[in-house]
Amino acid sequence: MIVQIAVFTPLRKVFDYLVPQHTLYPLSIGMRVAVPFGRQKQVGIVIRLLKTSDIAINKLKPVDKVLDDRPVFDNTLLEVLLWASEYYHHPIGEVLQTALPASLRQPKGWKIASQKYWSLTALGQTIDPQKLTHAPRQKALLQLFQTEKQLLSDTQITALLGTNLRSVLHTLEKKQWLKSIEKTIHPESSTAISQAELTLNREQQQALQGIIENGQQFQVFLLEGITGSGKTEVYLQVIKKVLQQQRQVLVLVPEIGLTPQLLSRFQQRFTEYIVTLHSALTDRQRLQGWYFARENKAQIVIGTRSAVFTPMPQLGLIILDEEHDLSFKQQDNFRYSARDLAVIRASKANIPIILGSATPSFESIYNAETGRYQRLFLSQRAGNAKKPRIDILDIRSAKPKSGLSDPLLQLIAQHLEAKQQVLLFQNRRGYAPVLMCDKCTWMAHCQHCDARMTLHQKHHYLSCHHCGASISIPEQCPDCQSTGLLMLGVGTERLEESLQAHFPSTDIIRIDRDTTKARGELEQVLKQVEKGQQQILLGTQMLAKGHHFPNVTLVALIDIDQGFFSVDFRATERTAQLITQVAGRAGREDKAGQVVIQTAQPHHPLLETIVQKGYSVFVQQALEERRLLALPPYCYYALLRAEATQEGDALKFLQQQRNQAKKLLLQQTSVQLLGPVSAPMEKRANWYRAQLLVQASQRTPLHRFLAQWMVLLQQGYRSAKLRWSLDVDPMDML
Length: 734
Ligand code: ADP
Ligand code: ZN
Ligand code: ZN
Description:
By secondary structure, this protein is α/β, with parallel strands linked by helices. It is built from 20 helices and 30 strands. A hairpin with a 2-residue loop joins strand 28 and strand 29. The longest helix has 17 residues. The radius of gyration is 29 Å and the shape is globular. The two termini are 49 Å apart.
């Protein structure tokens, strides 16, 4: 027999291998194998079983080893990945490799971690501990086991006795009073349901009904519900129905920070096993979660982007929350959209998928309008909560100091006096984004990027937020030696300082990447917020995501004006989503909310539409604008990016690729090339970057062209000094 293998390499090819007479396990599609590749051994996945090969039999090499007893990808998942490789024009070997937990990318077998437990033997039961007067530690252990009468792990024993008695355990094992057994660790589950289902309001009821009625086959539901409208409650009730049919559920969220919150809500409702999958896990924990899902030992998987690749043999429903969020798009190497792949996966598995958001992406709304998705609305806040009131604060008249205008300070004081919480949003961490000389024009720039360095006051350094470089703060201007260096602009750290000066006795909690670096830190902070009163929370976009802050009644956006001036055509969409999302944090449950937006552009049409008419109306207007300008979703984009260590090389490379492409495009008038141009931030981390945009009015000719072009590109120049990548459906042009 001959098998076709996708080897884990960046080559856009698959390879034929012979299957030796005797393999450890019978080979089937989706299994991992180790194969000789060049001079090395590589891992690959069997993607086809063949009778013949285009290559002469005596030239074919045999498979070295079959690595697992069963496939690591089921057929549906493998189909999705093959589709993705074609759609994103990314090498199949790398696609499959990306989809596996890190531990399975090595040419090795694997084992699921187990835990050692101790228990009493029949002999151990007959021994009287009181007689062990000369061995007090043995006595303590024996007493423990005779009273507890159950399996205990090393950590449990240490916790119960207050000391580590590992060596004594082994002594007792030798005496055959205790024995040890290995048990595999289980995924998380709760033993009892602690929260009853809520009675749905009319809109929730309609949404639930709509999903269930069409829920037996593939259908995309776009659940558009304002923040606090009870989307999660709808998810929970749909999930319940799916679990009752013995099917599994995959829930995707944009950010790790959202998994603990969701996990605990799920555990209050379901006793099924749940695993969470995200980047903060160790390789071992990831493998374990993956395994439980594949074995159908976990019925619910909650995970971030790459969890879309989790094998789930009984998958019956996919839910993707905050579907507009950019984190679902992988921004390097294999640049897939987990949202779009989730939809493909649902279609191949013939199951429903729910995309939820308070601010759906333009793409999804467009898909709903053209009938591909079914749109469901939740327009009211659930329970007693009311929609917040939004005010615009013109900072041209109310001059803010360190980001805070007087009217805003007064409002903050009022809300704090009423024992409520205030949330301030500033999408810029650090103390000040600019350090400038007061005598000449010098500003602190990053050596490696076309960017300014941000000043961090507390730990006293300048840092580049693009490449991560950091240096100490100079005492004087390097150009003119003036010692008058000005810190311009306001980051979260400066805002914190100035708030503390105004409200010295109030707790201020800052949430940004600088304060939540360590694992679990964000979780801790969020717990603190949940309990607290009279606090000020302040932070970056981490706060804009779906966290619950029941005591917040005032939300202020300190400065949103940068969003109006970006070169990216999607900037207004993002700004509108941000305003709506952040505003949605105000006044949940029974407290009325108020939102304040500080801006120097109070009459900006975008802002007026959002504030007066809401997100949906804004989208209608903005979509019409995109249609007139023939921008996505009314056309399709692919971006070829290149970066080089020498200035100009990336542009030159793209110019050559453009020339090559022209030959392919002779009869293709529906595909156009725009550029190449330097990237808006040309130099980043010492790489000079440029891009070439491919635009098409239809998908099919675009992909036909890209496939041919990639073959030419692959043969072209690639070195340590230049690299390139293709981004299909790019989400940013920076
Ligand atoms: P979303 O996910 O849309 O932000 P949630 O599902 O988290 O909304 O619901 C927001 C709040 O409203 C939660 O505290 C939830 O318990 C409550 N809630 C949701 N549905 C109902 C309902 N039908 N009746 C009463 N309270 C509800
Ligand atoms: Zn100077
Ligand atoms: Zn830099």
